[in-house]
Design goal:
- It comes from Paenibacillus phyllosphaerae.
- Residues 369-478 form the Beta-galactosidase 1-like first all-beta domain.
- One of its GO terms (biological process) is carbohydrate metabolic process.
- 17% of the residues lie in helices and 32% in strands.
- The strands form 7 sheets. The chain has an 8-stranded parallel barrel, surrounded by 6 helices.
- The radius of gyration is 25 Å and the shape is globular.
Length: 583
């Protein structure tokens, strides 16, 4: 039973000195059929360890309902890594950040208006404890002390960037130990005074997260931990992308140079990310510094291994540095994944969202337009409907406060869109006989980092015309977890360029299965499903222009494609291409 130990400024494993060369691969962002491929490519690059977060919201999607299958089969992923000769670092913190929805916290926590997150709050900790009572017994047999591959476990994630509740950190530490986690425990934080003071514990290994200036960052870390091993738990060698922005890239030579300097300083390193993968479904997160910014579906991260698992120039540069420092590196570069241009898919059937609300939702009636969480909804869309008396001329319609993007209709006609990052009122005219007001709100991802972590979705305060609040609403939660009840009908070949949300459906027959990319020229904004699997969001405003479709999501024979277009399209066709577009 080998145990990772700290001896002075070094790590020992089985009594021998070891440098951990780790890369982050999140099992929940990669289809299980490709886990082995990605892990082998990590090992071939010269790494000896894989690191992964564990997202609470994936494993407990509803309180008391647990999932550990498919994308959520964390036990299989860890065991597989061990079988392939890799060590494992797991970060099962209740909060993970990770540009993941709500930082991995389950949305149902927000149904309790009084709950306080990430601190010694009894209501919050009772939920953490119930989750850990299920999760940790699955991890304990995989610990290195029990013959498994897990060498180290994180207590909390970048806590110093959020709070300074040392009792909370100690509570989590003690909870891990009490449940049988007897491997090395650690914290990880940015290398600043505030972060290291708030996020570390005196009796727990501290690690640091940064992307450049290693000499400067190590010097600051040494002010707090003069004798411990240097471990960069997150070497940010790329970056994530937001909608409406350009794709982030970083020069491979610069990444290799910084890595070389880290290793020369004697540090162990975890690449964040080695392979990013995909934010499938509605699981992308968001940031809120000066304004709200939602993360895109792709989590390519400009990592050494691309979103579809291909070697990049960065992979080659990193491999050369690791070889220089004595790592075991494969002689041959891994082969790229098989990709195919399947061509055009015609979407010949359609179903309007407004026309088929009863097939998608059970409505509720409320005095005020309550947010998703109060109605037991986690993700997707929500529709607020009321009747407004008339006449009203040139009044300002205020959505107070909308999270995140609302399409507004008067008597079924689109009058404008209100976006959280640009919350301007709409000018409304209501005829003497009154009118129906519909507001369709999209949850574009809960904030995953910083002080605005508590991020309810929908209309969070109220709706008013000028200064008059509107009451008496019919609300349709639209999580879109299943589209099976939608009554699709044959639709005209010409595109529907209206602003009414419409589902389109078509089929593709496949004989040879390969990876491909969904391209949507002429479409505006929406969501794509393939054989019932939510592939993610698209938006013409970029930077993402294609959605990665892993081959294992296809099947030989007929494959069903459904697209929810929110604003109208100039075509009823999509394209499956062999070339990704992210720029």
């Amino acid at each position: 039973m080998a145990n990772l130990e700290v001896q002075g400024s070094q790590f020992l494993l089985g009594g021998e000195t070891i440098r951990l060369l780790s890369g982050a691969i999140h099992y929940f962002r990669v289809v299980p059929e490709y886990w082995e491929d990605r892990l082998l490519k990590l090992k071939a690059c010269g790494f000896n360890t894989v690191e992964t977060y564990i997202p609470w919201n994936l494993h407990e999607p509803e309180e008391g309902e647990f999932r550990f299958d498919g994308l959520a089969d964390v036990e299989r992923f860890i065991a597989l890594a061990g079988e392939l000769g890799l060590h494992v670092i797991v970060r099962p913190s209740p909060y993970i950040c990770a540009e993941w929805e709500f930082g991995g916290l389950p949305a149902w926590l927000l149904r309790d208006a009084d709950i306080q997150l990430r601190c010694m709050n009894e209501a919050y900790l009772s939920k953490v404890d119930a989750y850990y009572d299920v999760l940790l017994p699955k991890l304990v047999p995989l610990l290195s002390t029990n013959g498994g591959p897990i060498l180290a476990v994180q207590i909390e994630n970048e806590y110093g960037s959020y709070g300074n509740d040392q009792d909370y950190l100690a509570y989590l530490r003690d909870g891990l130990i009490a449940r049988g986690v007897d491997v090395l425990l650690f914290t990880s934080d940015g290398p600043t005074d505030q972060m290291l003071q708030g996020g570390s514990l005196p009796d727990v290994l501290a690690t640091v997260n940064f992307g450049s200036r290693p000499e400067e960052e190590f010097a600051k870390f040494r002010e707090y931990r003069p004798d411990e091993p240097l471990f960069v738990m997150e070497y940010w060698n790329g970056w994530f992308d937001h909608w409406l922005k350009s794709h982030h890239t970083r020069d491979a030579g610069d990444v290799a140079d910084v890595l070389d300097r880290m290793l020369q300083a004697g540090a162990s390193v975890n690449f964040y990310m080695f392979h990013g993968g995909t934010n499938f479904g509605f699981y992308n997160g968001a940031n809120y510094q000066e304004k709200y910014e939602a993360t895109i579906t792709s989590y390519d991260y400009d990592a050494p291994l691309s979103e579809c698992g291909d070697v990049t120039a960065k992979y080659i540069a990193v491999r050369d540095v690791l070889r220089k420092h004595g790592a075991e590196v494969a002689e041959q570069l891994p082969e790229p994944s098989r990709k195919q241009h399947y061509g055009t898919v015609k979407l010949t059937e359609s179903a309007g969202l407004f026309a088929h609300l009863d097939a998608l939702s059970s409505p509720v009636r409320r005095r005020t337009p309550e947010p998703m969480e109060k109605l037991g909804q986690n993700y997707g869309f929500i529709l607020y409907r009321t009747h407004v008396t008339g006449p009203r001329n040139q009044q300002e319609l205020h959505l107070q406060d909308v999270h995140d993007r609302a399409q507004v209709y008067i008597d079924g006609q689109w009058i404008g869109t209100v976006e959280r990052w640009n919350p301007k009122p709409l000018i409304v005219n209501i005829p003497p006989e009154g009118a129906a007001l519909d507001i369709l709100v999209e949850n574009m991802g809960r904030v995953n980092y910083g002080p605005r972590l508590r991020d309810a979705k929908g209309i969070t305060e109220g709706v008013r015309l000028d200064n008059q609040f509107l009451f008496d609403w019919t609300i349709h939660p639209l999580p879109l977890t299943s589209l099976a009840e939608l009554p699709f009908q044959a639709s005209p070949e010409e595109a529907a360029e209206s602003e009414i949300p419409i589902f389109y459906k078509g089929e593709l027959t496949v004989d040879d299965i390969s990876d491909t990319f969904v391209k949507l020229p002429g479409w505006t904004k929406g969501v794509v499903w393939v054989n019932g699997f939510n592939l993610g969001r698209y938006w013409e405003r970029g930077p993402q222009q294609t959605l990665y479709l892993p081959g294992p999501l296809l099947r030989k024979g007929r494959n069903e494609f459904v697209v929810l277009e929110l604003h109208g399209t100039s075509t009823t066709e999509i394209e499956l291409t062999d070339v990704p577009a992210l720029g």
